[in-house]
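Reviewer 2 asked us to include a model.

Predict the structure of this chain.
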Amino acid sequence: MQEIAIRVRLREQERVGLAEYERIVGSVATVAALTAWLPTPDARLVIRGRGAEPVRLETVSYGSTFEMLVVLDQRSAAVERAAAAVAALIESVRHEHVEDDVSGVAGELDRLDRSAPRGRSAVERSLRAFLEGARADVLARKSTTRLRAASALVRLAEDAAELTVERVEDALASELTEQPVDVLADTGAAIVVEPVDGVDAPDEPEVEPVPEPAPAPSSKSKQQDSGKKQDSGKKKKDDGKKSDKKSDKKSDKKADKKKADKKSDKKADKKKADKKSDKKKSKKS
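Predicted model (structure tokens):
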């Protein structure tokens, strides 16, 4: 397993004196100890002494850039994720001034808390709880180890530090071979950071509205349509029956007329026959 390292880069730095160098080294070492502690928040936070000191620390300055590489005595994925969460926190406020003259240290910690990663992992929840506890210590006017560690985070944020997570093959080698770590690609986890107050969100591309599909006919309308069809079918059947009845009545009337005509013809024939017989009788007589 490779050991975890944190690279801290400070740009636009003036000539670093001994006092400034000690301050930067102390802040970075404190943040390294905090990173190793975040996966186990129930344990005691130690920022000095055995177990908290880094395995190796290298510094280099070129131009106005001051760079420091801190190799932790840690290899677990949880510590690596904690280092990524701290780096995301510092990155979220790197372009902003964290200090607040009105609210003091409590306001600085509150701003860091609002910019902390909002993921649901144990490490991210532990980082937010740590910042909230440090703010409570300030309000209660307590000088605690938690507050000192949080102040180191504030100092790095004020210096606009850039933090990256790396792996080191052999911390004791004469020349270190580092490899940058992409925590999101390696673990598939997402570190969500809310935007800081005052930072404009990027403009979103305009999206043409998608036309809404026509609403599907409801069951009630279907029932009404089927009822209308049934009613129209019934009306047609009734009309057909009525027309059939009318035609039957007409045919009955015609038949009655024919019968009446036949009867009248028979009566006329009888009358003619009677008349002929009467004439014959009168001739004989």
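The beta strands are 3-10, 56-62, 65-71, 162-168, 178-180. The first strand starts at residue 3 and ends at 10. We have added this to the supplementary material.
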